Amino acid sequence: MQIEVLKSKIHRVKITEANLHYIGSITIDEDLMEAANIIENEKVTVLDIDNGERLDTYVIRGARGSGMICMNGPAARRISVGDTVIVISYCTMDFEAAKKHKPTIIFPKEDNSL
């Protein structure tokens, strides 16, 4: 049996930019991506603590050390600059392996640095 479990979590980062006219996605500082074990084009769920929005999108690599968390495309209408979000990704694995799995969870500082 295969189940879906938490793979990675960036807990509480601030949205620094919104680009409505971009194709779509969320741009994340490469330092944060690396620390959270998230890769470019990976599917993520973004949870907005300020307004309760939840949406799925994919990740684009942002400038390393920039602290950038940018909502792109239509998501920029649902999640605003200054909002605090949680970014999570999941993986599918065998039930027995999932029992031993430890997700990567990071807790950035208020300025989105590590």
Notes on the protein architecture:
The chain has 114 residues and is mainly β. It has helices spanning 30-36, 95-100, and strands spanning 2-14, 17-19, 25-29, 43-48, 54-62, 69-72, 84-94, 104-106. It has a single domain (2-95), classed as Beta Barrel (Barwin-like endoglucanases). The chain contains two helices and eight strands. The radius of gyration is 14 Å and the shape is globular. The termini are far apart.
Q: What's the SSE blueprint?
A:
Blueprint: E1 2-14, E2 17-19, E3 25-29, H1 30-36, E4 43-48, E5 54-62, E6 69-72, E7 84-94, H2 95-100, E8 104-106
Parallel strand pairs: 1-8, 2-6, 3-5
Antiparallel strand pairs: 1-7, 3-6, 4-5, 4-7
Write out key terms for the chains shown.
single chain; 114 residues; mainly beta; Barwin-like endoglucanases; 8 strands; 11% helix; globular
Biggest sheet character: 8 strands, mixed
- In total, how many beta strands? 8
Individual helix count: 2
Q: End-to-end distance, in Å?
A: 36 Å
Main sheet: strand order: 2-6-3-5-4-7-1-8
CATH architecture: Beta Barrel
CATH topology assignment: Barwin-like endoglucanases
Structural class by SSE content? mainly beta
> How many domains make up the coordinates?
1
Radius of gyration: 14 Å
What portion of the residues fall into strands of 2 or more residues? Answer: over 45%
What is the class in the CATH system?
Mainly Beta
How would you describe the shape?
globular
Note poorly predicted spans.
none
What percent of residues adopt helix (DSSP H or I)?
Answer: 10-25%
**H and E string:** EEEHEEEEHE
Average pLDDT level: 97
